[in-house]
Amino acid sequence: MADEDADEYKDLLNWAASRGITDAPFVGDKPTSIRSTPSLGFSIRIATFPDAGGRGLAAARDLKLGELILRVPEKALMNGRSARLDAELTRALALYPSLSHVQVLCVHLLREIAKGRTSERFPYLVHLPRYYHTASFYSPFEAQALQVKDAVSMAEGVVQNSREEWLQARPVLEKLGLGRRFCTLQGWLWAFATISSRTLYVPWDEAGTLCPVGDFFNYACPGVPYNLPPTAQDTQMREGDLISEEDVDTSGGIEIRDRLRDGGFEDERGEYCFYARQDYQEGQQVLLCYGTYTNLELLEHYGFLLPFNPNDKVHIELPTADEFNPGAVRPPPEADLLMNLFIDYEGKPSFSLLSNLRLRAAPATLLKSRHHLALAGQQISPESDKAVFRWLKSKCEKMLTSCPTSFDVDELLLAVIDSHPSVAEIQKLLTVYKEDFLPSPTENLELLNAPEHLQPVILNELESFIASAPHTETSSTPSWPSDLRLERWRLAIQWRLGYKKIVRRSISHCSRMLDCD
Ligand SMILES: C[S@@+](CC[C@H](N)C(=O)[O-])C[C@H]1O[C@@H](n2cnc3c(N)ncnc32)[C@H](O)[C@@H]1O
């Protein structure tokens, strides 16, 4: 952890103090000393955590679970209500009543940004990230790099939807007379990603609210202790890691209302209040649980992945009705049993998946008298359970072989990207490789040292990446937009590797179930 340069955030902290944002606790019904400046430093402070979200908030002292650690008054928030305080914006929006809450908040944000220093929120806005890796920024190449059909469709769908939403909102942006660059698709995507990755739930606005300083909290997923190092988390599955019933999102989709659980808007105080979700020692990063997300959902909405995410899962399509017992007549499964068909982070089938497979695998002669067992999570017969795990194992093996690259290739690609972290360096590596130059001793050799049969596949993807970035410079000049594409491609590879890890765990789980009698 490194404390942020106090000067860099001086304006923000002064502005925050002037808006009543404070990390001082309440005593009884009254706030403790009202300080005009600074707004932070009693409970939390801004710091950088390179391995866990970058800029975030650190405990400024030892904090206890449940302690109130930050309060942000309504007048500092940015949402549909604050948009309505702007008469010109309200008049313009009234002409386009079909715009969604998210579109309204995007317009509100772009209008404020376009005001530059004259915006009264400038000290906050200037510290918003300049770029994001959320799915709406994915190019066709980056979407394809996810490899798995559902994931590719997700990315392509988000890109398509954001474009349509921009086209619908563009007339308002133009009517408001915002400068040209605030009316572009790129500008819109930036605003949309800001809202997707930074808003917190409020009951009166489906888009949520931007919450200065409160949006500096990085994410921890439910049920995972903060202190466990990521490497241990990834390899060690402990009893305490099992996902509790209440953590499982059964809605099948992510609602903005699920975003934040460790705080909320408190009407009686008229403030957004944040509470410590565990004890923290001074200096430790203070994290928030925005909700329960798979890694694909984190990538889509927030543009990052967790190395250890017990809420991650892989969807499994059920076999056709005839696949186990051709011709057997069986009752159609109940609708709610057809939801939540997945293998979990540990590689185990979900309750619904296992029940469905058991109902399909059992011989028709046993079904009538024993189908209640499958609905209660029990096997119908040892033989039909064997058929279930044989089917699931073979399904998972096919899922792996249907991916364009293997687990090993993905790992090697990540190693190549890590040692060549810019587009220019990857181009140089390809030149060295293709022209058979002797690499210099400092040249990293993941590609050259990779098993020979894997090299063409690695090379092919590296070349496709370079070809997909048409504006890539051939010089060694660092290229900002291209290097962002590299980071997004890296995330896509990391995601598909995580997917393959779960599928591999499922194969091992099935083998164990088939081995035990
Ligand atoms: C609400 S903001 C948190 C503050 C943010 N780091 C900043 O600098 O403003 C959410 C974003 O922070 C990053 N983030 C949050 N939690 C993270 C984590 N556990 N690991 C990696 N990135 C994280 C992601 O980029 C995410 O979109």
UniProtKB/TrEMBL annotation:
Keywords: Methyltransferase, S-adenosyl-L-methionine, Transferase. GO terms for molecular function: protein-lysine N-methyltransferase activity. InterPro entries: Rubisco_LSMT_subst-bd_sf, SET_dom, SET_dom_sf, SETD3_SETD6_MTase. It comes from Physcomitrium patens (Spreading-leaved earth moss). The keyword Ligase does not apply. PANTHER family: PROTEIN SET DOMAIN GROUP 40, UNCHARACTERIZED PUTATIVE METHYLTRANSFERASE. GO terms for biological process: methylation. Residues 42-291 form the SET domain. This is SET domain-containing protein. It comes from the Eukaryota.
